């Protein structure tokens, strides 16, 4: 559905009265709620305050104030979003405005308890706010790539293969593990090795597809992938 660039989706989301605009907006919220929330928490905001600030910021976006100001000439969208988020938090602190609670998108599945849980898995107490935002973004990209891959395997009746192999995606699989997998999946060890190779290859393709939707220029895909791998390779980053 969204085989377009991130800036195109932003423009579509600005058409909030259309179903396509609502779908585009829901995708933006899905990918960026956690990064924004992570940043706010690392800035010292309490759990509820961080949630309220994130909700308020996104409400202002859907109202058109920030979406209309979005400009592809400014570069990558996540950099624009982070800059706008920092400015928003500073303005809120200076004005002492009371943040509105709830009312973002009623069907939005992400809640503060889940955001807090995810944050504790990828952010340490000493993580800088900018790094927390980056890790939130990386986690969202990985989650989306896995979700698409899971849907593909389920659609072809191979969910069990996905379920057993995906935890081993980045690991070196031992002969003993291959033997066990062969018994569980009722395949030969050779077939399991082929399946492992294919799921890694397809995950890479899925990851590239998701990243491609976050940039305006296809030439930036490689840079974003390198940034993503750099974030994931940090010693303290936990999946």
Q: State the helicity in percent bands.
A: 55-70%
Could you tell me the strand content as a percent range?
under 5%
- Please give the domain count: 1
The separation of the N and C termini measures 28 Å
| Class of secondary structure makeup | mainly alpha
Question: What order do the SSEs take from the amino end to the carboxyl end, as H and E?
Answer: HHHHHHHHHH
Overall mean confidence score, pLDDT: 80
Specify Rg, calculated over alpha carbons: 20 Å
Walk me through this protein's architecture.
The protein is mostly helical and 239 residues long. It has one domain (6-232). It has 10 helices and no strands. Helix 2 (19-42) crosses helix 6 (129-155), helix 6 packs antiparallel against helix 7 (159-165) and helix 8 (175-185) crosses helix 9 (189-212). The chain starts with 5 loop residues before the first helix and ends in a 7-residue tail after the last helix. Mean pLDDT is 80; it is low at 1-5 and 102-112.
Short précis:
The protein has 239 residues and is mostly helical.
SSE layout:
Layout: H1 6-13, H2 19-42, H3 47-62, H4 77-95, H5 112-122, H6 129-155, H7 159-165, H8 175-185, H9 189-212, H10 221-232
Helix pairs in contact: 1-2, 2-3, 2-5, 2-6, 6-7, 6-9, 8-9
């Amino acid at each position: 559905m969204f085989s377009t660039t991130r800036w195109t989706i932003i423009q579509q989301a600005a058409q909030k009265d259309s179903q396509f605009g609502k779908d585009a907006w829901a995708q933006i919220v899905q990918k960026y709620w956690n990064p924004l929330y992570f940043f706010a928490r690392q800035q010292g905001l309490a759990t509820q305050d961080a949630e309220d600030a994130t909700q308020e910021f996104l409400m202002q976006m859907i109202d058109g104030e920030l979406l209309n100001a979005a400009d592809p000439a400014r570069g990558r969208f996540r950099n624009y979003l982070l800059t706008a988020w920092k400015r928003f938090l500073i303005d809120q602190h200076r004005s002492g405005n009371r943040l509105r609670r709830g009312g973002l998108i009623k069907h939005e599945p992400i809640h503060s308890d889940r955001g807090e849980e995810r944050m504790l898995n990828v952010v340490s107490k000493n993580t800088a706010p900018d790094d927390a935002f980056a890790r939130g973004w990386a986690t969202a990209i990985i989650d989306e790539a896995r979700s698409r891959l899971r849907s593909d395997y389920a659609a072809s009746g191979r969910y069990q293969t996905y379920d057993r192999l995906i935890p081993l995606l980045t690991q070196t699989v031992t002969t003993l593990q291959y033997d066990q997998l062969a018994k569980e999946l009722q395949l030969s060890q050779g077939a399991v090795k082929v399946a492992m190779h294919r799921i890694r290859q397809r995950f890479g393709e899925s990851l590239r597809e998701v990243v491609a939707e976050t940039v305006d220029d296809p030439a930036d895909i490689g840079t974003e992938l390198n940034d993503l791998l750099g974030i994931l390779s940090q010693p303290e980053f936990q999946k």
